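Much of what follows relies on a compact textual record of a protein's fold. Each token is a code from a learned vocabulary of local backbone shapes. The record below shows the convention in full.
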Amino acid sequence: MSVKKCLTIAGSDCSGGAGIQADLKTFSAFGCYGASVITSVVAENTSRVISVHNVPVEEIEAQIDAVFEDIEIDSVKLGMLPTAEIIRAVAAKLQKYKPKFIVCDPVMIATSGDALSENNVAGAFIEHLFPLADLITPNIVETETFLGGYIDGVPDMEESTRILCEYGAKAVLVKGGDIDGENSTDMLFDGKEYVKFSAKRVNSPNTHGTGCTLSSAIAANLALGNDLKNAVRLAKEYVTEAIENSYTVGKGHSPVHHFYKLW
């Protein structure tokens, strides 16, 4: 049996709804094998982040070596890279191993609003990872952090994707879930064409890990042979339905239902 193999390099969410845990569930939901490199151990739940313990850089590098020396990875999803030092180390390893696809979700803030990274990581993302990634997937707050401005509506999202591509990214998907409206709209720019992905907004508080889930779903679909636009479309549909079919597991923002097609 042949199976596509995806690697997530991200933080661990002990409550199981975001980070490494969400990524591995998503890979599995699309029929891909998931491997992981943990960059940070986050004590969090559906309501708050209690503490963040970053893994030593040498151990992160060793985990990456362990995976790539043994497994032929079809795509990589990057999540929580909490320091500039970790970003530089991961970028160097990716340059060494040259995976076919890299999807970078520049996680800086949890769904609860708690910070997950140092203040200086935006510049490190731009310098070291934007040129390597096939796609970056910032949300509105992360996009505003990169650009130093305020985003309000689809025209601003479109302009933001263009500017971020000028910063060195091959393609950019700005996620608009944080902008109020009847629909949840994401904007993709691949350097040539703008594509808008809209879905009716689901009235649910169960959105913990949506960003992690979307980016790992895109990575899985790229590994499966879909082009970028179809990979994003399929991932967007998956996340929307995973929210629609979610259930309550905590007192705050519960996670999406990664296996709604199977249960």
User: Anything to note?
Assistant: The chain has eight helices and nine strands. The chain has a mean pLDDT of 93.
